[in-house]
Amino acid sequence: MHLTHLKHFLRTSLDSATRGGRRYHVWMGSLTLVMLVGAYAYGVQLRDGLSVTGMTDHVSWGLYISNFTFLVGLAAAAVMLVLPAYVLKDIDFSKAVLIAEGVAVSALVMCLAFVVADLGNPLRAWHLIPGIGLLNWPRSMLAWDVLVLNGYLALNLFVPFYILYAHFRGEEPDKRKYLPFVYLSVFWAVSIHMVTAFLFAGLPARPFWNSSLMGPRFLASAFTAGPAFMIVALWFIRQETDYHIEGSAFTKLAMITTVAAQINLIMLSSEIFKEFYFPTEHSLSAQYLFFGIEGHRGLVAWIWTALLLNVGATVVLTLHPTRRSRKVLIAACVVIFVAIWMEKGMGLVIPGFVPSPLGEIAEYAPTWVELTVTAGIWAMGMFVFTVLVRVALPIELGQLRTPVRGGPG
Amino acid sequence: MSARRACRRLAGALALALAACGRGEGDGSVQLSASFGQSGHGPPELALLASAPVTGRSGPEGHAFDVRLRTPRVTSYPCASCHERPVTAGSRADAEHADVRSVHPSEVAERCETCHAPADPARLTLQTGETASLDEAYRLCAQCHFSQTDAWAGGAHGKRLVGWQGRRVVMSCTECHDPHAPVLSQQIPFRGPTIPRATLEDRR
Amino acid sequence: MSAPRELTFEDVLRYAGAVEAGGGRSHEAPCSASPAETPSTLFDKPVDRRRALRMLFGAAAVGTQAASACAPLGATDEEAEAAILRWEEYFKGNFRLMSDAEKAETIVRLERLAKLRSGRDVTIKATPPQPDVMFGYAFNISKCKGYRSCVEACIDENNLDRGTNMQYIRIFEMEDGEIDFHEASAAFQHEVPAEGHFYVGTQCFQCANPPCVEVCPVGATWQEPDGITVIDYEWCIGCRYCMAACPYWARRFNWSEPTVPPAEINPTQHYLGNRAKPKGVVEKCTFCIQRSREGRLPACVEACPTGARVFGNLLDPASEIRWVLENKRVFRIKEDLGTEPRFWYFTD
What is the pTM of this model? Predict the structure, then answer.
């Protein structure tokens, strides 16, 4: 890989990403605007401290970590496409897989941004770097998470970059060079989500999270929300570009989403049974979540909304006629994506802190700063995703090629 | 209203003199502790404490311990400023000290002469007929409060002073319990927590 | 204070030099480090690459700050000095990995920063643990009357943030007949002790098997050999995982810049204890490490007017804490979690 070639590749990519029709510019412009507003809110947070958020010593994690948890799942779900596309040479998936890796990369960028936004001292993040800092590995699950998330990000940047760069240069990518990393990323994708689940499940202080079902449930919900997002994204790409995605890819993705949603509901019901058949003191968090305790009902409407959306969408997905209707499928995917974001985000993180380990009840509601920063980070994720797709698709379509073999000059 | 507060002030010299008198009885000699000969452990403030070894009791593992002296710190000292001679218990004494009303839960302890030696009003009287200095109030209390005294000697009741390390000096019973009203009173507590927390707006 | 003016690059270099030769300053500010050793260590240390880079970046940072709108129309000498000191602080390592010389350097800087911020001379010590000492604590639930004198003493002693009313200690008012934190309240503000109630105090229990230490991703919190779990306030990144992991809700976070009126600052401080904490870090009870390591009692023990609090060395058979453990029926909270708190409850 020659440096001038690389420069050319990057320049061409940048060129491609910054050109587009009016709708494209409006879309990117709006995202930029939201990001700027988010950056302003983050500036306020940096100046005044996390006291501008709704978090307290009682509920010490809030909207940021909720989004982080959800997005790790979204990133992990890319594996559902990587696995068959690269390893089993599934022809339907092979076209979708670059998009999936784009989803993974943008989700990971958002994850890291949410973690940084949540830090009390983001400038000290270098303390996490082994060698310069001091990473408490292997004892801390958060140290594991830092490693696996960054590793997964590196893998998901490397493999698509290598393939795209080869295609850009009009060459066939060498399987021996990237296939080992594909296998690794398959294993890695499962691990990022299990590790994130363990981050919560490993805390005996919080009985609501201290469940062995946490890891499997995380995977099931991730494999619902991830492919659901993919279906919507691919549908959108098919509408807007010349990139052809096989109809069977949708069918397969819909199947994955459906089965995962069903498994997720089974696990959810088993958790609910355990919490409510014979409620102990450890069930107080679940009681708070679903019914409220002592007049504190902050999440009740939230979780029931999420549950209804989830069940409704799962039913729609399960029935063959509705799933096969493209429009209904898209709607169901949007609904289940939102439902899981609600349930696995705030619905999972906040009740863990209510009541506190000493029985005090303090409720949480995000402030405008948190909402704005969150919107900004989501806009950033969408921005990254759009740029990645904007570069990947023309290369895959053969529209972007290095002009002279051997590169310029 | 307590007797202490009701009484007139007495010169510090008298208090010291009384403390010096107390030296003869009990067993204790006053330790103004630099002379105590403890090793270098423990906070230096301990050296400033006037204390004496506790009579007839030992702490954990049989170790001797000290009790802080009361008399050197007394600024209002009632008895000797009026009573130059021994007094007798009776209606006159009750009338003169009408402001002192003992609300000790035990009826016996509500009578002045149960604890105060009429012959020497500045001293305490024990059931054996022996008298004790105010510095040894614990000996008086120990006559009834067995379990409390055990816990006090062991360290589960009362308060140790200054350090966990070095010479063990504890407070005597009457430092916390007013002998005429030994039950601790109700109070308005210090300010409570702010739940969930004070906000930035609260501070401005 | 001198009038605000533009900061020149020469100024910056001068300050950088002044800080490097910070040993000279240390004579003015009281410092626990040996005065004979500090200046020479600082002077003799060769300017290695990291240090040189730091100085360069430091100069750049101060220049930027002076030029920026944040510092209105330039910075005063003191602001510039503080900025340089903070910059130096930013690059220091984890306390456990510092050499004695580095510890002395950072203490000089922190003491100077405290002076610049509050005008108060503070002494920050780094007293190490004593050999053969393991601290233990016992709390008599028959004795506690709920006065919260301990809370008041703790706030004063440990320089806790007055702005958010931070309190390490929680006193729970419980109804006779059950020990249930979920039914209890810590927010009582009536005359105490209330009829038919008893009081249970909580704070950091200094667990022998602390979950909070386990989870910290950067090793900013650890258990010292004398059993006290401490936090390096400059190493904590503020992720608050430890707060989620503590089963006793013993940790507090500085949601904003902590404020203590200068007149109320307790100037006797410990690096791992009651010194001024920055914004965005976690802090907790350290059994008053600045006192207990000197053989003194924690402020809460000293302040308790009922004698409900017993503190001492668990390894000393003649200690009061050992007497309580051997002669009273004791229990701990959430023993089923295996955290092994070194904080026991007992009754008369």
Answer: 0.87
